[in-house]
Amino acid sequence: MNSSAIAVTGLRKAYGDKAVLDGIDFEVAEGSVFALLGPNGAGKTTTVNILATLMKADAGSVRVAGHDVATATRQVRSAIGVTGQFAAVDELLSGRENLRLMADLRRVRPAASVVDGLLERFDLTESADRQASTYSGGMRRKLDLAMTLVGSPRIIFLDEPTTGLDPRSRRTMWDIVRGLVAEGTTIFLTTQYLEEADQLADRIAVLDQGRLVAEGTAEELKRQIPGTHVRLRFAGPDELDAAARLLPGAVRDDQELTLRVPSDGESRSLRALLDLLDEHLLGSREFSVHTPDLDDVFLALTGRVSTEVTAK
Ligand SMILES: Nc1ncnc2c1ncn2[C@@H]1O[C@H](COP(=O)(O)OP(=O)(O)OP(=O)(O)O)[C@@H](O)[C@H]1O
Ligand SMILES: [Mg+2]
Prior knowledge:
By secondary structure, the protein is an alpha/beta fold. It has helices spanning 44-51, 73-79, 95-105, 111-121, 137-149, 167-182, 194-200, 218-223, 237-246, 267-279, 294-302, 307-311; strands at residues 4-15, 18-29, 33-37, 59-64, 67-68, 80-83, 155-159, 186-191, 203-208, 211-216, 229-233, 251-253, 258-262, 286-290. The two termini are 43 Å apart. Bound molecules: adenosine-5'-triphosphate and magnesium ion (MG). It holds the Pfam family ABC_tran.
């Protein structure tokens, strides 16, 4: 298919006799965000490395930007940018020097204005001339991503771009990704966070023990995961009784005086639920929304918790 930025079929990779990728297939449409979700050791970085021509596959076909990664390495490299799991920033250089180096390597002209533009965009202008070793983790991550953007690659690989970032930096990173997508860039990202995939991705694939156990939009994936619900706690058994009669789909816990009400967790349905309780003069003492996390996805998709959790 011509409109695919990335097309992977039958991809296999083993380290020694340990199969890490056991035949995976997926396609990423141009201008979209694709998230590869999986626990530690699932094979996410291995996949990125193969797609980004940094590692050879054992079998299968991988086309990136219309070129075969095995035979057209140079063409693929000129179309992509990669932000690895571990920052590629040179600690001894300043932010500006790191970017300048990248601009010179990629022969981007005029280098100085491209560098200034990126520093501005990533809010790094003020610290541009400080050695990168003095940057915080979040700043380093931003600089790393800025370096990836030198030369405006059409396809960008981000390997766990927000692991270790605080919530604010995570949001900044999400905004940057959204900005890139708005410009038509294709993004392939890996993450351990369902929420991140949910926020950013057009399509999500879940990798488990070398295979894709699910692929689809966030909505499609969530439909496979029972679990989003509202938890209401009441002041006494009478309120609980009355509320349970009002909400026949709910599961009650008499000991805890709680009701678990299945919900999509969206503000409209939450408001409707609260309005209904209000109408019947039933105030709940506690109200919380529970959404499934990655472990719930794994539990639902594979019938067991993720390997990492089992190992603990
Ligand atoms: N060079 C290597 N030699 C041998 N085994 C390796 C090598 N690189 C990775 N592995 C193994 O392959 C599996 C997948 O590793 P990979 O780094 O792709 O996982 P990941 O999904 O990126 O994990 P994480 O979330 O921890 O980054 C792991 O079991 C890892 O130990
Ligand atoms: Mg990894």
